[in-house]
Design brief:
Length: 689
């Protein structure tokens, strides 16, 4: 007599082989032994991933490139391709090119950069509107600015005030009288709108009569040359070796009627802490300041700009609350700062631990209220962390453990979980070299492993869902990945190194949307292209797949045994909607059957599965068996007209299997065609010996 065992959720994802005997774990009931090119939905089902569509080749196929997202808004988003001394731009699945009438009309927009291939992994960045700040410990801080769709510039930030200092200071009128008392003044210009204060002018020095002889109504009037862009000028007078504020004026002159200098308000001290090749390696925005950290000479130091002035590192003596700030994390070991993450408090990830930076009672950081407290001692790799809601995901220093970090009310600090412990087989002997988060529509972290395998992590913290899956690709290895918002979804772009016709190529590819209603719209090929229009009998423009065997879905019909020759293929039948690309096989394997907790463990008993019932959602085709070598095809075609493609099916399908006695009782399901498959439940009918 057989027993039907219903697995109605796969939200545990792929579990490590070392856990296949741990039926006592909660995740065992929802886990899988293999989840390859399927991704896990937060609600428990799995779907085969869509294919990556071909965008373009990189500039130099022999060198690695890195993709970085650039988002001005949810509708103005770009992918930046950083290569060896260049940057190119992708938007909506195509290259950004110069428009008609431009001197380089039709050519890809390209910006020269100082970053070599070896520099690319350590580039860190932060963006505000159309400005991206780029840092690297071997290069000066740079600013990437977009002024138009095809106008991009990269320039070095000086960190000196943008407004010029006043010049030409002179004494115009002296009613106090001559004498031997030294009078010294400096003037600064305040920029319009931002009121950023310039470097102080050169000192104006002269002698007058003593203060005791300076009577009411007498004055000293000084003047200077007007500064372009100045809204007003601040005047400072010397007393006992310090310059103190005595007033402001909108004109280029000022009357001193014996004002007493305010020595608590002194002119700014202009500085650039990154002079002398002491360049920072990390950056972020926090509390209206641009924050930098970690240089080669000062690996545990943090520098901030003035409040609201993102290129101004000025300080004062005595200090002001909005002055630039410099401080160093004091720890037992010298662990370089790797990342800065702005949450309610500033989170600092170093190579040896996690820290939080906060201000005074009101939480605002100032030069006199900085507080730094350790939160843990895990350490972070150089791969930038991901900010998901109010949670940080980061990769530990050795590159093989993924953790999350969030505020815990119980400890009044930040704590988290090891998200990779249940699937450590995916990381053993490997590291994560790049990753991104695509929130809509499936909430998946896509991570590139050092051997080129793409891993996926379905992550929904509020529902305690974290499920791993792996996504290999035919003739290819993933090298870089990023995600941007496009057409109401988070589009994932990747650099894939492929062996095409015996040659190494590097392509930029985009993960296709999985939103479709008909099987003819389904895109389940890698490095693929699509055609839609009048009926054709051949497809050209496939030069990037020259010599490769490809899958074809033509008007919803699967065609096999096509090889690209001369950049083209001949279709078996004329078609008006065609998808062509490299094969993409999705495989799923359930965990060993064990009913521990119900009638004792059955793991040691021989088992046989004669039939499996699979609950599909909008799926077509597929194979099932007890192992990869004994698969039975699912035949679904029933009521379609002649020539009509098989419709997508929803419901429970029974698949009779070749009986086989073994002690694991696992079910293997595979999609071998470029067609959609979503599985909501697997119900094997198991007979026990």
């Amino acid at each position: 007599m057989s027993t039907a065992l219903n697995q109605a959720s796969f939200a545990g994802g792929e579990l490590a082989p070392s856990l296949h005997a741990r039926s006592d774990l909660a995740k065992f009931a929802t886990g899988l032994a293999l989840c390859s090119n399927f991704f896990v939905h937060a609600h428990g089902g799995v779907s085969n991933r869509p294919g990556f569509e071909y965008v373009d080749g990189v500039q130099d196929h022999s060198k690695k490139v890195r993709l970085i997202e650039f988002a001005f808004s949810t509708v103005q988003t770009y992918v930046l391709e950083f290569g060896h001394n260049y940057m190119r731009i992708v938007k909506d699945g195509g290259r950004v090119v110069y428009p008609a009438g431009h001197a380089q009309e039709g050519l890809s927009v390209e910006v020269s950069t100082p970053y070599t291939e070896s520099d690319l992994p350590l580039i860190k960045f932060v963006q505000s509107a159309d400005i991206m700040t780029l840092v690297h410990p071997a290069h000066p801080v740079r600013e990437l600015a977009r002024t138009d769709h095809h106008e991009w510039t990269l320039s070095v930030i000086s960190f000196y005030p943008e407004i010029s200092k006043p010049t030409g200071l002179a004494l115009d009128t002296n009613t106090v009288g001559s004498g031997s008392t030294d009078r010294k003044y400096v003037v600064t210009a305040a920029a319009a709108e931002t009121l950023e204060e310039s470097e102080p002018s050169d000192e104006l020095s002269f002698q007058t009569d003593t203060d005791s002889n300076w009577t009411e109504g007498e004055y000293l009037e000084i003047s200077w040359t007007a500064v372009s862009g100045a809204e007003k000028y601040n005047v400072y007078k010397e007393e006992n070796g310090l310059f103190g504020y005595i007033g402001s004026t909108e004109s280029a002159s000022f009357k001193d009627t014996k004002f007493a200098p305010d020595l608590s308000d002194t002119p700014p001290k202009v500085r650039n802490p990154f002079d002398g090749a002491n360049y920072p390696g990390s950056a972020t925005y926090y509390q209206q300041r641009l924050v930098f950290a970690q240089s080669t000479a000062e690996p545990q130091s943090i520098w901030t700009t003035q409040t609201g002035n993102y290129k101004n590192m000025n300080v004062s003596s005595p200090v002001k609350d909005d002055d630039a700030i410099t401080f160093t994390i004091a720890s037992r070991q010298v662990n370089e700062i790797r990342h800065l993450v702005p949450l309610d408090q500033l989170i600092v990830l170093t190579s040896g631990g996690e820290w939080k930076v906060s201000g005074g009672n009101d939480g605002v950081i100032t030069p006199t209220t900085i507080q730094v407290r350790p939160q843990g001692y895990r350490g972070s790799s150089h791969v930038p962390p991901l900010l998901i809601g109010n949670t940080v995901l980061f990769i530990q220093e050795k590159g093989a453990i993924v953790r999350d970090l969030a505020y815990s009310l119980e400890s009044d600090g930040y704590a988290g979980n090891d998200l990779s412990v249940m699937a450590n087989h995916l990381f053993d002997g490997h590291t994560i070299i790049d990753w991104c988060f695509a929130q809509a529509p499936h909430s998946i972290v896509w991570a590139v492993r050092d051997d080129g395998v793409l891993l996926g992590l379905t992550y929904v913290r509020e529902h305690q869902v974290w499920a791993w899956h792996q996504h290999p690709t035919t003739n290819g290895a993933f090298e870089s990945i990023c995600s941007i918002s496009e057409n109401g979804e988070d589009a994932v772009y990747a650099v894939v190194r492929r062996t095409i016709n015996g040659q190494e190529k590097r392509y930029v590819e985009r993960l296709h949307s999985r939103q479709f209603t008909e099987s003819a719209d389904a895109f389940f090929v890698d490095s693929g292209l699509s055609y839609q229009g009048a009926e054709v009998s051949s497809i050209s423009g496939l030069d990037h797949l020259e010599g490769e065997a490809v899958w074809v879905l033509a008007d919803g019909h699967v065609e096999y045994e096509h090889t690209v020759t001369g950049g083209a293929i001949a279709l078996q039948h004329p078609a008006s909607q065609v998808h062509i690309g490299l094969p993409l096989i999705a495989s799923l394997k359930t965990l060993p059957v064990d009913l521990q907790g119900q009638s004792g463990s059955l793991k040691h008993k021989e088992k046989s599965i004669n039939r499996v019932n699979v609950h599909f959602l909008e799926s077509r085709g597929g194979y099932a068996g007890t192992d990869k070598d004994s698969m039975q095809e699912l035949v679904q075609r029933q009521f379609e007209d002649w020539g009509e493609s098989t419709r997508l099916q929803t419901g429970v399908e029974q698949i009779d299997l070749q009986p086989d006695w073994n002690n694991h009782g696992q079910t293997f399901i595979e999609q071998r065609d470029p067609l959609p498959m979503t599985i909501l439940a697997v119900i094997p009918e198991v007979t026990f010996a």
